[in-house]
Specification:
about 400 residues; 2 domains; six-stranded mixed beta barrel; 16 helices; about 20% strand
């Protein structure tokens, strides 16, 4: 076997140009497919990050009727025992209490429907990082009686720092709630929609305003990543019973999951076309190699080489060509994508505006997850194995007399 492998390796370099052309076709195929996959997965990761880090977290605990009817009447009492039970899981980083509602934000004769978030400032910013997104003023402090609002909302209502915002809404069990709040800070939110409507209040202030003492609409449960969420979610669902329910971000945002899956399916089709092109490139070169060397094979068989041994050598030659293309493609794409992941490509013009309108940052993001690389390597290697069958069959069917005459 070692001799066969050694002969196959030497045979490759008898015609360096042909070998390098074939390896180059595989190299560029692996590079392009890895680049495309990285770009896709990077955009998906960013999409999930926006959903998770700027709103929902990886999981949430609600009253079981809240998600279908997002009314403050479907809130629940803060329960430290429940929080401790959730935090008892080693993969859970932190639990964030929230009270969410909707109301009219007003200034002068201008009004706009707004999302009101009652938060614990120090804990909330661990997930959303909103303290770092303040463009004017300061972040909320404990027991603060002011608000932080979105930049878009401030511009629409023509409000500035330290101006007064009027909020009118319906509180707990239909209580009328109206109040004036000084603007402590203005935030530039990543999501354009939230930027036009978001209002953050300190949790106690929000509870008092809505007449919902000690009430919460959700406990946001955060973990390290999506894999940790999947491991923890099943356990939490089995432990936390009625009247509570546990939901993952995928259950809360099914449209995001559907968008990712449909886009990924389109990417599979594009990569399949690319792999077909790669396969025909390899196959064409192998066919040419067999045709050029028919006389050589006829001589080798005539002087005693077994056809089975020749077929094994040709199979190894094909495998070596595939492996050279795969390893060179991965070797170049890995550092390239590492650089791209740290330096996303900025988008400009109408494309950037379109991205912002959909709630995404105007950048082209890249992923360096291991599957970006090994999926391409395995796919091309399997193609190479399948193509390697052809020279084996061709060598076994060689007729020595015809081969010696080059036919």
């Amino acid at each position: 076997m070692y001799t066969n492998i050694k002969l196959a390796w030497r045979n490759l370099w008898r015609n360096k140009r042909r070998t390098l052309i074939t390896v180059a076709s595989i190299f560029f195929g692996v590079l392009l497919s890895a680049y495309m996959t990285s770009m896709q997965e990077g955009s998906y990761d960013k999409m999930v990050e926006i959903v998770v880090k700027f709103y929902s977290g990886y999981m949430q605990v609600h009253h079981e009727e809240y998600w279908e009817n997002k009314s403050i009447n479907n809130s629940f009492d803060y329960d430290q025992a429940l929080v401790d039970q959730i935090k008892n899981h080693p993969e859970i980083d932190f639990v964030i209490p929230r009270l969410e509602s909707f109301g009219l934000a007003s200034a002068g004769e201008l009004t706009r429907g707004s999302a009101i978030f009652g938060i614990v400032p120090d804990i909330e910013t661990q997930l959303t990082g909103i303290a770092d997104k303040i463009v004017s003023g300061n972040y909320l402090q404990a027991t603060d009686d002011g608000v932080v609002i979105g930049d878009g909302l401030a511009k629409y209502l023509k409000l500035a720092l330290n101006d007064t915002l009027v909020i009118i809404t319906q509180g707990y069990h239909g209580v009328s709630a109206a109040g004036k709040f000084p603007i402590r800070g203005i935030i530039k939110h990543v999501s354009p929609e939230l930027n036009k409507s978001i209002i953050y209040m300190e949790l106690k202030t929000c509870q008092n305003f809505l007449g919902a003492e000690n009430k919460l609409t959700s406990l946001v449960v955060n973990v390290a990543d999506n894999d940790a969420m999947k491991r923890t979610l099943k356990t939490l669902k089995s432990e936390i019973r009625s009247p509570f329910s546990v939901m993952s971000w995928e259950e809360m945002q099914p449209e995001v999951v559907q968008q990712i899956e449909s886009d990924r399916a389109g990417g599979v089709i594009m990569k399949a076309i690319l792999y077909i092109v790669i396969a025909f490139g390899i196959f064409g070169t192998i066919m040419m190699m067999i045709a050029e060397r028919r006389r050589e094979f006829g001589v080798m068989i005539s002087i005693g080489m077994q056809k089975s041994k020749l077929s094994v050598i040709l199979f190894f030659e094909t495998i070596f060509i595939g492996l050279l293309g795969i390893f060179s493609g991965i070797a170049v794409s890995l550092p390239l994508l590492l650089i791209q992941a740290k330096n996303p490509i900025p988008l400009t013009g109408d494309t950037a505006k379109l991205m912002e309108d959909f709630g995404f940052e105007p950048y082209m993001f890249f992923s360096t997850a291991p599957e970006v690389f090994w999926q391409q390597a395995i796919s091309v290697f399997v193609l190479t194995l399948l193509i390697g069958i052809y020279p084996m069959i061709a060598s076994l069917r060689i007729k020595e007399i015809k081969a010696l005459h080059g036919t």
